[in-house]
What we know:
The protein contains 6 helices and 10 strands. It is of the alpha/beta class. The strands form 4 sheets. The protein has a 4-stranded parallel beta sheet with strand order 1-2-5-10. A two-stranded antiparallel ribbon has the order 3-4. The protein has a two-stranded antiparallel sheet with strand order 6-7. Strand 3 (90-91) and strand 4 (94-95) form a beta hairpin. The longest helix is centred in the first third of the chain and has 15 residues, at 11-25.
Amino acid sequence: MARETFIAYKYSEAQDLRDEIIEKLGADASYYQGETAESPDMTGETIDRIKNGLKDMIFGTSVTIVIISPNLKQSKWVDWEIEYSLKEYKRQTTTSRTNGIVGVIMKYNGSYDWLISRSQNSDGCTTRYIDSSKLYDIVNGNRYNLETDDKYSCKNCKSFDQLNGSYIALVEEESFLVNPSHYIENAYDKRNATENYNLKKQR
């Protein structure tokens, strides 16, 4: 089932991947509520007007896709878009719920090693490490935050499942593009189970 989605990304380096995601969504792209070529030009607008425009795009969505690119933290807006996606806001008689969020890691110079490294533990498990310095605090604060009794995918090395162990899961772009609806649904399912996660909603 298609979900209303918003894509947060750094325009100068992730526009091509954003376009590819929309293409892969196929017919479901009609449910995408974010910036398009037909969106109003907000160049020169005040911060409040820009934020209100973004709020209008995000308010009716249930899932936010964040493109994780090398210089993401230089964006003036993406961390705010994530914060707004996580909070609940009321407009007249309608209240927006916390969005599910999935991060799509952009491939850069042919690899993901600008963000990801891996090592093998003594018990045979392979652990994936994310360079948290490349991510916003609000993303790091919603990683490895599952709080259920069975939160570890491996009790020996106390590692978390890559998809369900974090409210904001990070997925390589190649995996995401093969089956975007799988990852969108996973984010949507977690949106309906926020009580299982210790959410950080402030930047």
